[in-house]
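Hello,

Our lab assistant flagged a job as stuck in the queue for most of the afternoon. It eventually completed. Since we weren't sure the result was trustworthy after the delay, we are filing this so someone can double-check. Below is the sequence as submitted and the structure that was eventually returned. Let us know if re-running is recommended.
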Amino acid sequence: MLLEVISGEDPRDQFSYLPSLHRDLDQIEPSNLRVAFAPTMGYGKVDAPVASVVRKAVSNLGIVFPNIEQIETVCDEAADIFITEFMAGCAARLGALAHSPDELDPVLRAGIERFRARPAQDIADALRYRYRIKEQIAALFQKYDVLITPTAPCVAWKAEEGVPPGHEHATAWSYFTYPFNLTGQPAGTLPCGLTADGMPVGLQIVAPLCREDRLLTVMKASETVISAGFGASIDPRP
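-- returned structure --
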């Protein structure tokens, strides 16, 4: 309902060239979709409890998506691009406040300081690299209709810790979500199960550019299967 309201042409926005999302979502047959499952994207580090829950959920999804294929890589790691753009925005918006030790989270303040110390050429190179990532993901969606990954590599951690334990040395620990922030593919996440400690785990579903209709159809079908599988074992065979 939200997408129906905000999509479509508007003379106040020169980029609103996309049609309104009025397609009948039920016209897409999930069983015909070619689904890629990338458990690490080729570079991500996933905590074992999260990986286990995600694999079970993907196995259960075989009921409605019989054409699921596991793949090893999606694109090159683009963490530096993401961090560069994110910190550039933070540095510009926060201005002199970024130097205040009492006003900002220490991790954010340190990131802004590192960004401001970088040569302009390094920053320009990182931004140009975005186009290579776009091309790689576009190539993936020429072969597959939908991509599935974990949403986060870990469960929620203590609020006073700036980054999740075990991922302190990652350029960006959100391995699975930032590539699609950079390239514009519509993506959504669903809760797909609980770890042995009762912590929730998310499953990310990604569709090609401008295919929010496909994304919503796949999420709807996936949600039904995953909800049925919470706390139970589902035979993924047709």
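-- support follow-up --
The delay was a queue issue, not a problem with the job. The result is valid. The longest helix spans residues 212-229. Residues 34 and 143 are 8 Å apart (CA to CA).
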